C-alpha cells in the first residue's frame, strides 16, 4: 500500500535497520525500485526531486506511474512517495495535492528561525492530510539536480539547533548534515559520529542520511546504530544503470530499440537497490 514514512521509519528505528529512499529518474527506475522492494519484502521510499519530477512530466505523472505500477505488480509492501529536497512551501503543497505521501522541506540554507517557521508551516498542512515531513539542518555538500553546495558551504549540523528545530516543528524525521555528500565522494567520507550520537540522543526521532552512495558498510552500520532509519540513494543506481547502457551499446553498436538497452539498465538498478536493502537490513521487514 501507499503510505507515509512515519510508521515505516518508527518501526525501522525501533528494530535497528534503515529504509532506503531510492530516487526515481524515469519509468525504468520506478519499475526497478518497486520490483526490488516486492521481491525483497522490504518497505521502500520512492524519492522524487523537483528536477526529476519536471523531467518525468510533473508530480501527478509521477504519482500515477507509481500507483499504476504498484497495481500492475501487485505490490504488497509499504511504499511512500516522497518529495526530495522540497524547495518551498508551495512546492510541498503542490506535491501533497498531487498525491505524494511524504515531503521533505529543505530550509537548510535559511537562518535557523526561518527554517523552523517554514518547516512548521509545511508540517501543519502535511499532518492535517496524513503526510509525513522531513527537515534538514546544516548543509549537505555536493550536487543533486538543482541543488549545488560547494565544499566551503557544506556545514555540519549543530546539535542544540537540531533539538530546537525538531521540537518546534514536530517533523517525523530529520536529516542533520554530518559530512555526507550528494554524488560521488572525493576520497573517503568523513561522517561526524560524535555529533551524530549527540543529535540522536537530543532529538529521538528517526534520522535521515543523505548522500548514501559511496559510504562504506561499516559507516552505514554505525549510522544505523546511532539513529538513522532512512538512507537516501540515487547516484549509485544512476551509475549502475549508465554502466549497463554503455556496455550493451558498446557490444552492439547497431542496436536502436530503447527496450534493448533500457531493459538491462532496469535490471542493473534492481540489483543495486536489492543490494542496498540487504545492506540496510530492510529486507523481509515489510
Ligand atoms: O537526496 C538524495 C540522496 O541524498 C542522494 O544521495 O547522490 O549519494 O546517492 P547520493
Ligand atoms: Zn539529499
Automatic annotation (TrEMBL):
Transmembrane segments: none annotated. Its cofactor is Zn(2+). Dihydroxyacetone phosphate binds at residues 183, 211-213, 232-235. Zn(2+) 2 binds at residues 106, 136. The active site is at residue 84. PANTHER family: D-TAGATOSE-1,6-BISPHOSPHATE ALDOLASE, D-TAGATOSE-1,6-BISPHOSPHATE ALDOLASE SUBUNIT GATY-RELATED. This is Fructose-1,6-bisphosphate aldolase. The gene is fbaA.
Amino acid at each position: 500500500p501507499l503510505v507515509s514514512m512515519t510508521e515505516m521509519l518508527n518501526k525501522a528505528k525501533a528494530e535497528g535497520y534503515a529504509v532506503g529512499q531510492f530516487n526515481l529518474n524515469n519509468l525504468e527506475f520506478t519499475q526497478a525500485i518497486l520490483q526490488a522492494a516486492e521481491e525483497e519484502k522490504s518497505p521502500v521510499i520512492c524519492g522524487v526531486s523537483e528536477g526529476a519530477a519536471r523531467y518525468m512530466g510533473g508530480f501527478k505523472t509521477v504519482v500515477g506511474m507509481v500507483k499504476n505500477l504498484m497495481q500492475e505488480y501487485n505490490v504488497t509492501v509499504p511504499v511512500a512517495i516522497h518529495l526530495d529536497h522540497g524547495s518551498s512551501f508551495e512546492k510541498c503543497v503542490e506535491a501533497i495535492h498531487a498525491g505524494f505521501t511524504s515531503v521533505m522541506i529543505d530550509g537548510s540554507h535559511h537562518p535557523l528561525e526561518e527554517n523552523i517557521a517554514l518547516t512548521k508551516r509545511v508540517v501543519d498542512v502535511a499532518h492535517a492530510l496524513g503526510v509525513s515531513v522531513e527537515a534538514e539542518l546544516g548543509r549537505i555538500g555536493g550536487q543533486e539536480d538543482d541543488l549545488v553546495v560547494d565544499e566551503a558551504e557544506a556545514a555540519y549540523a549543530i546539535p542544540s539547533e537540531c533539538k530546537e528545530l525538531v521540537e518546534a516543528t514536530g517533523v517525523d524525521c530529520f536529516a542533520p548534515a554530518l559530512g555526507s555528500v550528494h554524488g560521488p565522494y572525493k576520497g573517503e567520507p568523513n561522517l561526524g559520529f560524535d555529533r551524530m550520537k549527540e543529535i540522536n540522543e537530543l532529538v529521538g526521532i528517526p534520522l535521515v542520511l543523505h548522500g548514501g552512495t559511496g559510504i562504506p558498510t561499516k559507516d552505514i552500520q554505525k549510522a544505523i546504530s546511532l539513529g538513522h532509519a532512512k538512507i537516501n540513494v540515487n547516484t549509485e543506481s544512476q551509475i549502475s544503470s549508465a554502466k549497463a547502457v554503455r556496455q550493451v551499446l558498446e557490444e552492439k553498436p547497431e542496436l536502436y530499440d530503447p527496450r534493448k538497452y533500457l531493459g538491462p539498465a532496469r535490471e542493473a538498478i534492481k540489483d543495486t537497490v536489492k543490494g542496498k536493502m540487504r545492506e540496510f537490513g530492510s529486507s523481509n521487514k515489510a
